[in-house]
Amino acid sequence: MGCVSGRRAWGLGIVLGLAAGLTLGGLWPNTPLHAVATDRLESFAMATGYVDEGVEAVYFLDFLTGDLNAAVIGPSQAGGFAVTGLYSTNVLQVLNIDAGKNPKFLMVTGLADLARGGRAGAQTRPARAVVYVAEVTTGQAVAFGILWNPTLHSRGVLDRGVLRPVVKFPFRGGAGMGAAAKSKDTSKE
Questions:
Q1: Which residues make Cβ contacts (< 8 Å) with residue 36, sequence separation at least 6?
Q2: What tens digit of pLDDT does each residue of 25-74 get?
Q3: Which residue has the higher pLDDT, 82 or 183?
Q4: Quick count: other Cβ atoms within 10 Å of Cβ 82?
Q5: CB of 73 within 8 A of CB of 83?
Q6: 177 in a domain, yes or no?
Q7: CA of 34: how far to CAs of 48, 52, 162, 174, 189, in Å?
Q8: Which of 17, 21, 117, 132 is the most exposed place for a label (fewest CB within 10 A)?
Q9: Collapsing DSSP states into helix, strand and coil, what is residue 156?
């Protein structure tokens, strides 16, 4: 008798657990996960970043020249896949750094909810991520964004553009950062 009652309790527990899991699974918000990757080798770095739903860019930074390039892959007009977006800039020029000073870079991507409404009828819009590039010898950083055209992308048409600086800022003892670090923390008052 005790064995049968134990089996019933075990079965009832599984049924209740399954019902609770299915209920919570249906009510719990579904949050998509966006994975990014970053790698570097001597004088070169690459990273991936989210552009739009189901679309990402791969960014390449050449430390010697300061050239930052991004490529977006999408459907090809001929079938299969092709590069549907190419974007570029020069980090050394944007940050006003002399290439002869042996700059040292870090690069990562991050999500950015930039204004996406735009003008009525506008074909381009900001990507949903930015690429951050920091130059450690000067303590400067800049976030770059892509203005991309999802219509051209979905048609497999190549879109060329500029990686645009969104914001530049010091990250080490520069103007503004030191003051922010020394300001009074009012969050605990």
A1: 47, 48, 49, 50, 56, 108, 109, 129
A2: 565 555 554 556 677 788 899 999 988 888 889 999 999 999 999 999 88
A3: 82
A4: 14
A5: yes
A6: no
A7: 10, 11, 24, 32, 36
A8: 117
A9: coil
Please provide residue 12's backbone torsions phi and psi, each rounded to the nearest 5 degrees.
Answer: -65, -40
Domain annotation covers residue 17: no
Q: With the C-alpha atoms ordered 109, 56, 145, 45, is the resulting torsion angle positive or negative?
A: positive
Q: What are residue 5's phi and psi, to 5 degrees?
A: -65, -35
Say if CB 137 and CB 104 are below 8 A apart.
yes
* Tokens matching residue 88: 């570029």
Residue 7 structure tokens: 């089996």
Q: Is residue 20 domain-resident?
A: no
pTM of the model: 0.72
Helices (H), the chain: 2-27, 91-95, 150-155, 177-182
In a domain, 24, yes or no: no
Judge contact between 13 and 21, C-beta under 8 A.
no
Copy the structure tokens of residue 91.
Answer: 């980090």
CB neighbourhood size of 67 (10 A)? 15
The 10s digit of each residue's pLDDT in 101-159 is 889 999 999 988 776 555 545 688 888 889 999 999 999 999 999 998 888 888 888 89
What amino acid occupies position 28? W
